[in-house]
Amino acid sequence: MPLERLIYVSRARGSAADDLLTVSEIVGASAANNRRDDVTGILLAHQGRFLQAVEGRGAALERLMARIEADPRHTQIEVLERRVIAERQFPYWEMAHGHAPEGAPSFDTLDAKGAFAVLSAAAELAGAPEFS
């Protein structure tokens, strides 16, 4: 089975995207699930929205998206891109997280290319080895 990358944006219910405890809970659960399922990725929170890229096998990404769709902290989930990839862009993290880089556009306006650029910039700022 080939590797895939899935990028989605969602609206946080309530203050989920801005509440550090809530984001920490999401990241903690995600890291455990992703480690088990061999999924890697990065999650950003910005202006009440989540932007996430996840990478792994298709079946694992299907299970992940089912959990996200059932999670009451997410609404208005929009998949921006899902495609086969030759290698992982975010291989070092079961689930890195943070806020959008300074000057990032609203997640509401991003297409797949723009979303990938924001996620990559955030990974670089976080000091990911592939960007060093």
TrEMBL record:
SMART domains: BLUF. It comes from the Bacteria. This is BLUF domain-containing protein. Gene3D superfamilies: 3.30.70.100. InterPro entries: Acylphosphatase-like_dom_sf, BLUF_domain. Residues 3-96 form the BLUF domain.
